[in-house]
User: Fold these one by one.
Assistant:
Number 1:
Amino acid sequence: MHLTKQEEAMLDGEMGEVAQKSLRLLVRLGEIYGADRMIPVGSVQVAGVSYKSIGDPGLDFLEDFAAKGAKVKVLTYLNPAGMDMENWKEIGFPEEFAKNQIRIMEAFRKMGIVVTATCTPYLAGNLPRFRENIAWSESSAVSFSNSVIGARTNREGGPSALAAALCGVTPNYGLHLDENRKPDMVIEVDANMEFNSDYGALGYHVGKLVKNKIPYFKGLNNPNTDQLKALGAAMAASGAVALYHAEGLTPEARDFDVSGLEKVQVGKEELKATFDKLNTGETPDIVILGCPHASLREISALADKVAGKTLKKPIWICTSRVMKEAADRMGFTGIIEKAGGRVVADTCMVVSPIEDMGFKTTGVNSGKAANYLPGFCNQKVIFHNVDELVKRCL
Amino acid sequence: MKGRMISPGKAQGEAIVSREPIGFYGGIDAKTGIVIEKGHELEGKSVTGKVLVFPCGKGSTVGSYVIYGLQKNGVGPAAIINKETETIVATGVILAGIPCVDGIDIDQIKTGDNIEVDADNSTVNVL
């Protein structure tokens, strides 16, 4: 791999041990994947934040790196943490867990990382440009930035993203290259897509179908960014889709001639079969929305639906701290709390210890959450649209 | 034997060989260096100071941090030799600074062999 003089110096240890090890990691990964050189990144999003995911080994590593003076070179955000960093006690997150989670966040903050922990950095102040190279980790954020924004990132692991942040570069391979961004298959959608959950079901179905290939959608009728976020998240969870194109909707779609590609039809039967398959529960102990993290529009819609009502089962909506502050100001948080729900920030159901908090059956409107909750959190799942979920809590 | 350098450095020590993959997270105790995975062929054995030989990594990506922790706690292996190093082990050995070579025919090595690893020159010798 070709390295600049400055990169060579970094590799020789002239900029300290942390930079040396970080660049060595990036160079080795680049060699494994056939990169020709390093490229600068505009921003980073680091995964491996929840204490539930990384445990003591991760905590020890991060504290050690922070103590050695590690400092990021570019705008860097975090993936969701294992709990709401401000209201954890009130919501009922375990004390021992909280102590360790706070130490993890402190280690990141010392490194200069913005401790805004979200799977939607693009809604919280970390917005890349079209064709900007970035190094992001969380699979739905990777999908959204590649597909909807047209930025360029591979799906980074926690340490490789952190290394990219500390060095300001990433190896040039995979989705950073034009030739690897071409669609492999056309998905023709013919279904009435009303709710965000319909996009989650579509994403779950297509992810299983295409695995790690790049799908090109036709027939999507004017989805908003919340729905595209739901679609990409589910595809990245059930498959390993890091990039999709959608005719007339995503910025790179017009660059490709798809006439010779294999075509697959998806209609209402496939969507119904997906809902049936993902529904393993009957009565929810709790409904959790906001996977990926809710936009202000989604929080506002929930507030409208529960205003003046009394929930028999709690509804949580997970979001970034930035959206929560806007929701607080607008009074949406107050309305949701008055009905018996909560706006939970910094965390999400998949990485928080909900199985230790007494919940056995969780209602979700997210294809991604429906995919992960049975395995990661030992939950039975009710996968439905938000209207039906609210109805079941009244 | 000639392989590929994954992480630089030189080491010499007694081989401990696993014919099955190793998952470090939940597989090896970072405080003691002892293999704790139930039913693993190395269960109960220590990797500390040894040349750890196995085909490839498996399991959680947190395994990278366990490799780092082993080294920091002074109970890490002296070197690692793989058939093919995947990203979990590659990340771990590079961050930890443990010499590591892959692309080696590990069937030629058995537990107890005295092994010299020169990762800087991508070589492994059974002495």
Note: The two ends of chain B are 12 Å apart (CA to CA).
Number 2:
Amino acid sequence: MDAKKIIMDGTGIRRALARIAHEVLERNKGIDALVILGIPTRGVNLARMLEEKIYEIERVHLPIGTLDATLYRDDLGRREEQPSLKETDIPISIEGKHVVLFDDVLFTGRTIRAAMNALIDFGRPKTIQLAVLIDRGFRELPIRADYVGKNIPTSLKEDVQVHLEDVDGVSEVIVIPKGDGVEA
Amino acid sequence: MDGLLVKNGRVIDPANNRDGLFDLYISGGKIASIEPCTASVGNGTAENVIDAKGLYVLPGLIDIHTHLREPGYEYKETIKTGMCAAAAGGFTSVACMANTEPVNDNESVTRYIMERARGGVNVFPVGAATKGLGGEVVSNAGELKMAGCVALSDDGMPIADGGLMRRILEYSKLFSMPVISHCEDTLIADGGVMHEGFTATRLGLKGITRVAEEAMVARDIMLAELTGGRLHIAHASTAGTVDLVRMAKERGVNVTAEVTPHHITLTDEAVIGYNTDAKMKPPLRGREDVEALIEGLRDGVIDCIATDHAPHSPIEKDVEFDNAANGIVGLETALSLVWGLVENGIISRDCAILRMTSGPADILGIDKGSIAVGGDADIAIVDPGKEWLVDPERFFSKGRNTPFSGWKMKCKVVTTIVAGKVVYSG
Amino acid sequence: MRLKRKDLLDIEDLSRDEIELIMSTAKSFREVSDRDIKKVPTLRGKTIINMFYEPSTRTRTSFEIAAKRMSADAINISVSTSSTVKGETLKDTAKNLEAMNPDCIVIRHASSGGPHMLARYLKCPVINAGDGTHEHPSQALLDLFTVNDAKGRIEGLKVVIAGDIAHSRVARSNIHGFSTMGAEVRVVGPPTMIPVGIERLGCSVVDSLEEAIVGADVVMMLRVQFERLHRPLFPSIREYSLVFGLDTEKLKKAPPDVAILHPGPVNRGVEISPEVADGPYSLILDQVKNGVAVRMALFYLLVGGAKE
């Protein structure tokens, strides 16, 4: 029954975020015109955690927000049930900004495609960059992440789940056989 | 030889207190003999024999309130299809209402109807009470009577003018014709489309209060009392109407009343889902009304069961509830519906038969409704235990508008005989 | 998540869970209307037909905007009907529409049950935009949404619905909706406008407006529908407004933070005085704004999913 593998613990997640924070700052040469947007659900928490790391380094708060791309998904007409909608909250104009999208797991790339389309309806950012905690492969679209917490080789028979203290009471990344455990 | 022998059947004729296994020998359209099965001899002369073993042999049913639609509305029903429907329902006589086009308010129309109705079940036209059903001038009742009408009624066009109703009740005495009154004060009904109550409120449909009926029943009873005229209340639908008729009868007023099979089997809840096949006037009422109507039927306050057979085409029923025509077909389901009440012990078997045979015959003053030697050989042979499924597509009537579609019913008509001739064989 | 139904015909049928799902979905959609580009591609290529058999500006516009903001192709058909003119029957209309393969039909009809009839003949979802004096489900959902937004809850609230209850589809839908969500509903109006057995829908009946609004959290004033009153149910407009019109004087009986709702269009000075309609606790314009979000939510939940 217990086929779950812990591939990252709380400390591992913190370290990955610290590294990503540095990479973001390095690549953008500072914090000018940076915006971080989390993709619900856990991407929102990760975005907040990333912002905190950057604050620890730079002592400046970056604008953060939430971008739900559900309405832009390409599978809406194909599913039996409509996915439930989450909040979208983009506090400032993204026109000309460097936007870092944060999602928990990068898989097929379809969510990111939807998120980019959604984002462009809000304005024309200077760049869109992608941060993910986990890249598990199996891309179906030509999309890659700019910042990756960890690359994990997986099989399609497995689910990767990111659990975070704020949402799940524990911080860890686990791999479980598909169909086990709670919602992905 | 036109002889017909109906043998081995259980003959039930409560009007003559007869219930037992008898052979009926029919000749010349009349009942020639009624002999206990065991004693039955010398019937070899009959050309035709019907073996009614295990079946009930009843007096042919009589419907005092039918709409045959012809002339004028042949797309809804013709006299022929209506007669076939009647026969299939065990009816041997029907009285047809005057709301045809042209209206049956003169001898030409009456004679036309009777001509078209030759052969098959007996058709007794009801003449219009007012010219053109206009509610303004008393019709030529004498002419109608002589042409063959047995009663007067404006049915669905209630006579709002009380003074006129008085004159009709007075004048019709001359011809001993009952005046059949569809009691509905249309100003009180105020455009309602179903019974006023919780269901109407819930469905957002405009209700018709019971008082719309009862106010006119009370008026007509008082007018009948005043004039000594012969009043018959059509399709009573409320407990209050039953009370009014009961009190009137106790006072000796010359009043009778009918109820339909649907008003004693369904309530206003049948409308739920905007079922236009549950739309009629008077509307289906509440549970307490159904109980009072049945009580009235049991104790004789209600004299007869009448179908108010009202065929419509889908053009008039397959529309929004507000716009749908009133009425349902009833000839082919009436007996089975009433039999359902018998099976459930709600009314007695004899009560059911009386109210569908001698009850209506007495109101119309026709010498029918029982099985007696020398009497008309109008017979319904039924299988009381036989279950059948109501499939409107198989109706003989052109009308498919029934709320009983898909109902499983008991008591199936096997053979209907009118004046010694088999008019239906199921 | 998905509504467990093909059509939205009445609130009476909806469970608490379904109402909550619609409200939470509407919350997400409200933000779309605040964007510069007020459009999402969710229903691209879908065809939504708005069929209005009764005049309507607000509801029809609201459904149309909702459809367009979701990138659906919205087509409006106004059908003028009069019982004397024999036009195409609703059944024929349904068959013709079916042949055009729409993805959703929004229908307003003068007869109670009209949308139900249409829904029986159509494979696509049918949304009732008001049928006769029966129900107006999208209105009740936006009222619930607006109250929930303003008060933070619905459970336990005291809600007064005042006016012509008998002829109001808004009243019926709101009685069902608010009672399903755990509010206490009182209706008040002239006895000629209180239909038989209304309390069995889940509300109490009060005679006096002043009495009814004591302790009320929400007061919903219904529009006096002159067009439905072929025989007046009250002596004069002046008398109606005197006895049942909500003005600042009567409003003093209500708690200071009472929310005022009106489904519109308002007969100013009849059922509600201008001071109250435009007053600080009036949510009338919030209702209009939320109407679009609620209707987008309905389209999302009913139209968006896979076809059978």
Note: The longest helix of chain C spans residues 284-303.
Number 3:
Amino acid sequence: MTLAEGTQLVSFGVLTLTTIVAALGVVLLENIVYSAFLLGGVFISIAGMYLLLNADFVAAAQILVYVGAVNVLILFAIMLVNKREPLVPLKNAWIRQGLTALVCLGLFALLGTVAITTPWAVLTEAPVVGDTALRLGEHFFSDFLLPFELASVLLLIAMIGAIVLARREFIPDTNADDGDPNLIFRLPERPRDPVAPEPLEPVSK
Amino acid sequence: MLQLEYFLLLAAALFCIGIYGLITSRNAVRVLMSIELLLNAVNLNLMAFSNFLDADVKGQVFSVFVITIAAAEAAVGLAIVLAIYRNRDTIDMEQFNLLKW
């Protein structure tokens, strides 16, 4: 085993450990803020995996899009809906969790068996791809042009849809021209209810 | 030397953890996080196949598309969670039973 292979193997082991532990933390921890930050850890570990798989451009895109956008979006959602409600305990919740764990373990066994027993036609020598960003760009603008443009349209649709869904609803009978004469435009939205400041309490869970 | 099966096993484990979280979570935001875990597992599969089985980078192209769709899905999903939270004043998945008969 050469030094490069040993380094790859050790990196893979460390990244696997952080990925699995952080993913279990995302699912199992009580506090959802910890879950959100551990989700960022999962994304960064997966980006490291992409680097091990010779995909530098997608690793950078993963960091930018997932850690930079999706994780921040999730943190904002947690801050916007931070209702500290005690969840009503369900009857027989352990039956549901046990059954789900059983099904997931079975699914993992099935997928693992398929992954191990299938004779994959692995390339014998490593292909020389060169600049992956260049090759990705060639694909995007030649044989994947239609999906590429459709993805841009989908992003536009998702942006408009998210704004329409998350906007406060229209209140038509607010007379907008009552106060400030310098105010030339005001968004017609429902005024926020004043919130009494809560006394700070130590977070117990 | 790294094998294809290592990555496939890791992706399978991540997928199963995501499924478990998807079914057992009661916080709606945590459900969205589990969906992100699922998408990442699928992406890891695509990248592993692209590296080990294909001399080209087509798997990476698909992976970029999946990342795009995941970003759009996260935005719309969190907007839906916000809308439900405004209407029902809770984010407990057990109380979103409008369509249950």
Note: The mean pLDDT of chain A is 85.
